[in-house]
Amino acid sequence: KEYSGDLAIYGSGSQAMVIADYIQDICNIKYIIEDDEYVDNSLKRLLEVVQNIKVLSLSDYIKLGSVVYKIPIIIGIGYSGSNHDRMRRYDYISKLGLSIAGYISPQSRISKNTHIGEGVIILDMVSVHPKASLSKGTFVSSGAVLGHDFICGEFSWIGSKVVFGGSVSIGSEVFLGIGSSIANSVNIGDS
Hints:
Order of helices and strands: EHEHEHEHEEEEEEEEEEEEEEE
Helix content: 10-25%
Shape: elongated
Structural class: alpha/beta
Largest sheet: 5 strands, parallel
Radius of gyration: 17 Å
Distance between the termini: 27 Å
Number of strands: 19
Strand content: 25-35%
């Protein structure tokens, strides 16, 4: 689903900033949300003063009350050792009843005959072929090619220029680094 209103980004690291760069022209990034122990006061001042983006800990964000239930959240947690961190935050936000958003770059080509799960992020120049399926929380970086009948488990990370042949499946929390190539009909299990 494309959003053109207010959005919040969960995370304040490199991946959150990449996502913010992609969505800033189509959305109003109203909040950066971070785990309580990671709220950095210098970053907070920079974003709040220079870019008019409010930086809040998750607990302070929830204290805002009903307004937060109207603002979808994009999970901007990168792969820094584990897709599990992204999944854990996604699950927690879902249990709170907050809305999770995804993003698909308009510069990507997505077949109409595909399934894109909740919270999936697809950056630019990605090609998703017919009958592909991306499960919730998956991140696909620039230039990836997902062949026909590709199946991707939850919270996997597909790096830039990764190429999947047809009928490939990968499990949940799988990481595929920059430029990986997977031949037709290969199955890769969970993390």
